[in-house]
Amino acid sequence: MNHPNDARRFAPATQRNREPILKVLRRVLPPTGTVLEVASGSGEHAIFFAPRLKPRFWQPSEAEPMLRESILAWMKEVPSDNLFPPIPLNVAESVWSIESPENSQVNVSEITAMIAINLIHISPFTATLGLMAGAGRILPVGGILYLYGPYKRGGKHTAPSNASFDEMLQQQNPEWGVRNLEEVEAVALENGLNLQEIVEMPANNLSVVFRREGE
């Protein structure tokens, strides 16, 4: 949905899930550093979370240029001094653009947490592989990766609505779909990320929290 007068885009789900997500983030995020939000979408989460999670800094990222414009438009509407402009980032790439020595937009060494909301099921599994590999490279020991969305548990949907949603996603794109949490956990573990906590959320979603362990 577009706002008629500017570049802002609206994702209705953000209004419903932002308060429950914030409650978890306040508890699990490291107290300082920069939070890298992967696949920030419209930017509505970024403008809501950033001012409420100070003194942390918030770095949105998004592969789609149109959505980066939306994030900038939202930032103009709801400014926060700890919210950085969005950067282009394709998680499926083997090396992320922010890791390039030529890229001075982001200080990778200051990133202490990464979050991805509603990414894993609305993307090919290569995005999950790239996300976990990137988190394993970038996060410091003790760093947190937070995921939000629907998952299958033990190969089964947790609710009929999730099964219907999964079917709809796969009709849109056969590479999309609700993932098995155990498979996601296995990929995380391969990249030095240990599952810390699973929190049941509204609308049959889960908050899944991983922690970067030492070598």
Structure description:
- This protein has helices at residues 12-28, 44-52, 65-77, 125-138, 160-172, 181-190, and strands spanning 34-38, 57-60, 111-117, 144-149, 151-152, 179-180, 193-201, 205-212.
- With 215 residues, the protein is of the alpha/beta class.
- The protein has one domain (12-212): Vaccinia Virus protein VP39 (Rossmann fold, 3-Layer(aba) Sandwich), CATH 3.40.50.
- The strands form two sheets. A six-stranded mixed beta sheet has the order 2-1-3-4-8-7, sandwiched between helices.
- α2 links the parallel β1 (34-38) and β2.
- α1 (12-28) runs parallel beside α2 (44-52).
- The longest helix is centred in the first third of the chain and has 17 residues, at 12-28.
- It is globular, with a radius of gyration of 16 Å.
- It starts with 11 loop residues before the first helix and ends with a strand.
- The model has no long low-confidence stretch (mean pLDDT 93).
Q: What's a quick, concise take on this entry?
A:
The chain has about 220 residues and is an alpha/beta fold. Helices cover about 35% and strands about 20% of the residues.
Give the SSE layout.
Layout lengths: L11 H17 L5 E5 L5 H9 L4 E4 L4 H13 L33 E7 L7 H14 L5 E6 L1 E2 L7 H13 L6 E2 H10 L2 E9 L3 E8 L3
Helix pairs in contact: 1-2
Instruction: Provide the CATH superfamily.
Output: Vaccinia Virus protein VP39
Distance between the termini: 45 Å
Q: Give the quaternary arrangement of the chains.
A: single chain
Number of strands: 8
Strand order of the largest sheet: 2-1-3-4-8-7
Overall 3D shape:
globular
The helical percent reads 25-40%
The helix/strand class is: alpha/beta
Q: Give the amount of beta strand, in percent.
A: 15-25%
Per the CATH scheme, the topology name is Rossmann fold
Q: Briefly, what CATH class?
A: Alpha Beta
Residue runs with pLDDT of under 50 for 5 or more positions:
none
Question: H/E element string?
Answer: HEHEHEHEEHEHEE
| Main sheet makeup | 6 strands, mixed
Rg value? 16 Å
Can you tell me the number of structural domains? 1
Overall mean pLDDT score?
A: 93
Our count of helices gives 6
* CATH architecture classification: 3-Layer(aba) Sandwich
